[in-house]
Structure formats: structure tokens, C-alpha cells
Design a protein that fits this description.
With 502 residues, this protein is an alpha+beta fold. It folds into two domains: 211 residues, Chloramphenicol acetyltransferase-like domain (Chloramphenicol Acetyltransferase); 217 residues, Nonribosomal peptide synthetase, condensation domain (Chloramphenicol Acetyltransferase, 2-Layer Sandwich). It is built from 15 helices and 16 strands. A six-stranded mixed beta sheet has the order 6-7-8-3-14-13, sandwiched between helices. The two termini are 30 Å apart.
Length: 502
């Protein structure tokens, strides 16, 4: 590996106010085109519920909270100017420098207050039907404060929701969690008297993941010779109105069915069978999918997953905790499980054989080098990827097949501090969920752990599925996982009525 030139550098204009711009990497371009032509497909949002410690003697009404949240988002822009980047023409990112007044105007526009029952999830489902980033004025990141009517009327708020919605070319799931953690930190310590030297934050604009990654000399040459323009056939946006994305979740508490330390017990069982927790949960997903679909023609079950480059494939300091917020997902990996394994085996033997097969596939993935560069070199396949995605959006069949998306997010405390406080405020992150817009028939499944609990979630297209059907599928997946975490595992038949380890 060696140092080398930057492929997507930030360029600073000479005119004032300054404007920074850079071209999109291949993965960022694909996401921008999906956002434009496939109804925001795969665009991420992060919803959190925050509790307020009543023992702290400070008043927190809706006006105070809204004002402090704007200040927190301004401070976030100073450290992570990504939240104010715009995606222009699906070809480049731009960051416009503003003075303090302009930044305050931006914050009032992008921090939006909503009073409605149903919390952040109801607001998210509304946005999935009505909004695609960027907004008409060009904003590519929005922060929503969502309050129940009961809480909004209180002079002392005890709980509130936040929903962070950002263009996928700018961030991935890990980036959203880092940004939200920073927002919560600043919300607890917000000081309106602090001033910023606006313009200097341009120096904090982060590189593209490709330019933060190690690349071998061989692939450096290939990247240098790669055509810069991406040739695309005519693309047509779907005619019909967006039906929106639904989200269902299932939380398995740490004390479950009389068992304590559920997650610890589940990890112990996984290790005893030479697999990690993520492969264990993925195996439960594959078995549930097989038992639900009962395929007659499919020869393999496929799980499509993205790999976070931060842990192994970004140079220092970008791989450090909560440092890189940009899009840093490597190649989409397709983990294939032969249907014969699911047909020919039963019970625990079937489960752990499938889990070991999945773990072996992930072990092979972890040995790959130059992952960021390989993603960039897939530029010639961009047209095919977009056409396949649009075909999925236009597909009318509601029937499940043997293919799903699955991401095992890292434990929440890898990125969230959990408690945010100063002398006047104390906030606690009660729960969170990362969701992605889904316009195709494929289910987008995720898992993460937080406060000792394991959370499973599924995003789905309302055009292709009903909430009840997806909830039923999720319940079966969750109950199979639950059976694994119990001392008595006689119920592990598998026929039960957002890569990182969770």
C-alpha cells in the first residue's frame, strides 16, 4: 500500500462566499441516481426516543427544546459540515459557506418541529410517501423534533423523539449514528453564547471513502485509467405515486422467559458452534425465509448485505470511533445458502450447519483487500444496477422470494454515549432504529443491540406487502432467535408459529 493522489478531491472556489465541491464516487453516484429515479430507494433515516431526567432542576418546554435543538444542529454543522452539503445534479457534492446569519437561517429551515401521535415512526412513514431529498431549496439533511400532543403541552417535557433524514450519497447508517450522537451531546450542553468562525469549517469536509482507504499499486493504475464519465441508457421514473415504506420492529429483552443475560447466552451458544452473533441471527433469518416461502424452484437463498469499511478498510484517523460520517459501505455482498441444506437437515443440526456456512462466507469476505477501490471500479456496471433497481420498483408481485437484505449493525454503545448531560440537563437515549426507504419487493432486515436488548427490524414497501404479513414474518424470525437464547433449545426446529457483529 502507498500514499497516492486523491481521486475525488474537494475544490474551493475563489469567489466569495466560498463554495466547495467534489465529484461523486461510483457508489455515491449510484445512490444519487436511485434517489432520483427509484423513489428514494435505500435512503436512510434514524429515529430515536430520548427521555429527560426529571431530577435535573431545569425547565424544558417545547420552545426551549426547539431552540436548543437548532443550536445543537448548528454546532453539528461546525464539526460535521456534511449535514449542510447539497447533492447537485446527481453528479457532485457542494458545500456553501454562510455567515452566522445564513447558518441560523439554514438551521431554522432544516430543524422542523412536528406535533403528532405515533412518534418519529409515524413521521417517517409520512415522509417515505411524500418527500425525496434534496428538498426544493436543495437541503439534503433534515432533523425533525417529533412530540406527542401530551408532551408538547407540558412545561417540563419528559420524552421526545428525533428523526434524522439524510441523502444516502452523503452518509450511511454508521454516519447517521455518529451525527445523532453528536447532536444529542450538543443538545445537552448547548450554549447559545458560543460563536463559530464560519468558513473555517470547510477545512473539516471529509474525503470520499475511496480517498480515505488503502489501495494497492495494481488497482491504483486501474483507477487512474478508468473512464470518468458513466454511460447510462434513458431512465424513466415510475409513474405511480409513492406508496411509502413501512417499518416493524421486535425487541427481545435481556431478561427473557426467565433467562437473564439473553444476549450473553446467545453469544456463548454461537461461539460454541464457531460462529459469531451476526451469522447466528442471519441463519435464523434464512431459515425463517425458507419456511415461509417453501421454494419449489430456487436453489439458493440469498442475503444481500453491505460491509462497513471503517473497521478495516479506512486509513487512520478515519477508521476510529465516530470519526468518518460519509458513505463508507463497500461492495454489496451476496451470501448464498444452498436450499439443499435447508431441505435435507432438521432441528439444531440444520440451524448450526446453516450458521456455519454463512460464517464461512463472511470469513472469506473479511479477507478481501482493496474493497473501496473495487467498488469504484464497478462503474461500468452502473447502468445494470440502476435498471435492476428500477425493475424491482416497478414489479407488482407481492410474493416473497428467497432473497432479502440484511445488515447486522454493531452494538449501540460502539457509537452512542447513551447518557448526555451537563449541570442543567440530563438526557438518556431510550431506544433507536435505523430504517431505509424500500420501494422494491425485497424486505430490508436489520438487527442491533442496545441496553442489553436485541432489536430486530424490517423495512418494507407498502406497494408490495402489508404490515400484518411482514409483522408475522418478523415474529417468526424473532421467535427462532429467542429459542436460541434459552437454556432449553428443544424448540429450535426453525418452523416457528441496517458486516459487523451485533
Amino acid at each position: 500500500m502507498c500514499s497516492r493522489t486523491t481521486f475525488h478531491p474537494w475544490a474551493k472556489s475563489e469567489a466569495r462566499p466560498e463554495l466547495y465541491s467534489r465529484t461523486l464516487t461510483t457508489p455515491e453516484f449510484v445512490l444519487a441516481m436511485l434517489n432520483e429515479y427509484a423513489l428514494g430507494q435505500s435512503c436512510p433515516s434514524l429515529g430515536v426516543t430520548v427521555s429527560v431526567d426529571r431530577s435535573v432542576p431545569s425547565t424544558l418546554d417545547i420552545q426551549t427544546l426547539s431552540s436548543r435543538l437548532e443550536q445543537a444542529f448548528i454546532a453539528t454543522r461546525w464539526t460535521h459540515p456534511t449535514v449542510a452539503i447539497q447533492v447537485r445534479g446527481s453528479k457532485e457534492m457542494i458545500y456553501r459557506v454562510h455567515d452566522a446569519e445564513g447558518v441560523a437561517t439554514w438551521a431554522k429551515r432544516t430543524v422542523q418541529y412536528v406535533e403528532a401521535p405515533g412518534g418519529w415512526l409515524a413521521k417517517y412513514e409520512q415522509l417515505s410517501r411524500e418527500a425525496v431529498l434534496p428538498t426544493a431549496i436543495g437541503d439534503s439533511a433534515l432533523l425533525h423534533l417529533v412530540m406527542s400532543p401530551e408532551q408538547a403541552s407540558k412545561s417540563q417535557i419528559t420524552e421526545f423523539d428525533l428523526l434524522l433524514h439524510v441523502h444516502h450519497s452523503l452518509v450511511d447508517g454508521a454516519g447517521l449514528r455518529t451525527i445523532m450522537n453528536y447532536i444529542l451531546t450538543e443538545l445537552a450542553t448547548s450554549d447559545s453564547s458560543i460563536s463559530f468562525s464560519w468558513g473555517e469549517e470547510g477545512d473539516s469536509l471529509q474525503p470520499a471513502a475511496l480517498d480515505a482507504a488503502p489501495i494497492s499499486n495494481e488497482l491504483l493504475k486501474s483507477l487512474a485509467q478508468m473512464p470518468k464519465e458513466i454511460s447510462l441508457p434513458p431512465l424513466v421514473k415510475p409513474d405511480e405515486a409513492r406508496r411509502g415504506t413501512g417499518v416493524v420492529t421486535y425487541t427481545i429483552p435481556n431478561a427473557h422467559n426467565g433467562e437473564t443475560e439473553f444476549l450473553s447466552h446467545l453469544r456463548t451458544r454461537a461461539r460454541a458452534n464457531n460462529v459469531r452473533l451476526a451469522a447466528t441471527i442471519q441463519a435464523a433469518l434464512v431459515i425463517t425465509l425458507y419456511d415461509e416461502v417453501k421454494p419449489t424452484e430456487d436453489k439458493v437463498a440469498t442475503v444481500i448485505s453491505g460491509v462497513d469499511l471503517r473497521a478495516r478498510d479506512l486509513n487512520k484517523p478515519w477508521g476510529e470511533r465516530n470519526r468518518f460520517v460519509g458513505f463508507a459501505v463497500g461492495l454489496l455482498e451476496i451470501i448464498r445458502t444452498p436450499v439443499s441444506l435447508l431441505e435435507d437437515l432438521e432441528g439444531e443440526e440444520r440451524f448450526w450447519t446453516v450458521a456455519q456456512q454463512i460464517q464461512n462466507e463472511w470469513n472469506a469476505v473479511s479477507e478481501r483487500q482493496d474493497v473501496a477501490a473495487l467498488g469504484e471500479l464497478r462503474r461500468p456496471a452502473t447502468a445494470f444496477v440502476l435498471q435492476m433497481a428500477l425493475a424491482g420498483v416497478n414489479k407488482s408481485s407481492p410474493k416473497l422470494d428467497m432473497s432479502v437484505n440484511y445488515v447486522s449493525d454493531p452494538p449501540g454503545d460502539n457509537q452512542f454515549d447513551g447518557v448526555y448531560q451537563d449541570e442543567q440537563s440530563r438526557f438518556k437515549l431510550a431506544r433507536y432504529q435505523l430504517v431505509t426507504d424500500e420501494s422494491t419487493p425485497r424486505l430490508s432486515c436489520r438487527s442491533h443491540s442496545w441496553n442489553g436488548e436485541l432489536v430486530l427490524g424490517i423495512s418494507f414497501s407498502y406497494k408490495h406487502h402489508t404490515r400484518d404479513a411482514v409483522q408475522g414474518f418478523l415474529d417468526k424470525w424473532a421467535r427462532l432467535v429467542e429459542s436460541l437464547g434459552q437454556s432449553d433449545t428443544t424448540g429450535i426446529s426453525g418452523d416457528v408459529t441496517d458486516h459487523n457483529d451485533s
